[in-house]
Amino acid sequence: MRFHKSVLLQPACHFLAVKSGGHYVDCTLGGGGHAAEILRQGGKVLGLDQDPDAISACLALPKPLGEGGPDLILVQSNFIHLAEVVSAHHWQPVLGVLLDLGVSEHQINTPGRGFSFQESGLLDMRMDPNLPNTAATLVNQLSVNQLTSLLRDFGEIPVAKLLAVKIIAARPLTTTDQLAAITGKWSRQAFQALRIAVNDELGALKEILSQAQQILAPGGRLVVISFHSLEDRIVKHTLKNMPSLTPKPVIGEKGAKLRAYVKTINHY
């Protein structure tokens, strides 16, 4: 499926240790690559994504009615509602949870979504179109100190204040190419910072890591694929007391890092 190419596909399913008929949760469906492989290996998948385009792309995945109910259930939801969705669909015991963080190829390659600094489009960057604030909202309303903190903390940009001053001087900004012309060589980091802020990605990550540990059955696996150091640090810190299956992360394309953990009965 060309909606999104799943990275570290086989390693992710290897560490999930898919069992026939077992219940798994793909918290970030994207184009359904990971979900399709879990299904192929005999698992059942509860798939979440806050982006309605991802849900639409996954409607073509096979949904046979296996023993005990359907093999695939699709839910449009932010993964911060993981425990609630699992409970509502009676999806326990959960043998594995998968998180493939970051932005999808479809989101990047659709100019109207506003994620790419290389394509002209509105400054949006919302993964869920119902979120209240777009990237344009932040760019045009934040103070210089607020914008500096955003660019520094989420983009790790050493010249964050200089960029913030330039952005504010050029307001109002409504398109990606307008912003990219100002951020220049720091565009990748600046767009990342705004995307993280718009979607509260780091706050959501902390929340789901806690929920995932709670809903997993003893012996269940948690696999997380991250794409930048901010995500990776949160994963390592939050899960430091959970037994790791990957003493060193598995490295994939685009700098992706896969870390896998197993839930024991008394690991807290």
Automatic annotation (TrEMBL):
The residues listed in the UniProt record as binding S-adenosyl-L-methionine, with positions renumbered to this chain, are G32, G33, H34, D49, F79, D100, Q107
Q: Quick check: keyword S-adenosyl-L-methionine in the entry? A: yes
Query: Entry's Pfam families?
Result: Methyltransf_5
Q: Name one GO molecular function term.
A: rRNA (cytosine-N4-)-methyltransferase activity
Annotated EC: 2.1.1.199
A GO BP term, please? Answer: rRNA base methylation
- By its UniProt entry, which InterPro entries does this protein fall under? RsmH (IPR002903), SAM-dep_MeTrfase_MraW_recog (IPR023397), SAM-dependent_MTases_sf (IPR029063)
List the catalytic activities from the record.
cytidine(1402) in 16S rRNA + S-adenosyl-L-methionine = N(4)-methylcytidine(1402) in 16S rRNA + S-adenosyl-L-homocysteine + H(+)
The listed locations are: Cytoplasm
The cross-references to Gene3D superfamilies, in alphabetical order and at most eight, read: Putative methyltransferase TM0872, insert domain, Vaccinia Virus protein VP39
Sorted alphabetically, the Gene Ontology cellular component annotations on this record are: cytoplasm
Q: Which UniProt keywords apply?
A: Cytoplasm, Methyltransferase, rRNA processing, S-adenosyl-L-methionine, Transferase
Major localization class: cytoplasm
**Role summary:** Specifically methylates the N4 position of cytidine in position 1402 (C1402) of 16S rRNA.
By sequence similarity, the record places it as follows: Belongs to the methyltransferase superfamily. RsmH family.
The protein here is known as Ribosomal RNA small subunit methyltransferase H
Query: Source species, please?
Result: Candidatus Amesbacteria bacterium GW2011_GWC2_45_19
User: What gene does this protein come from?
Assistant: rsmH
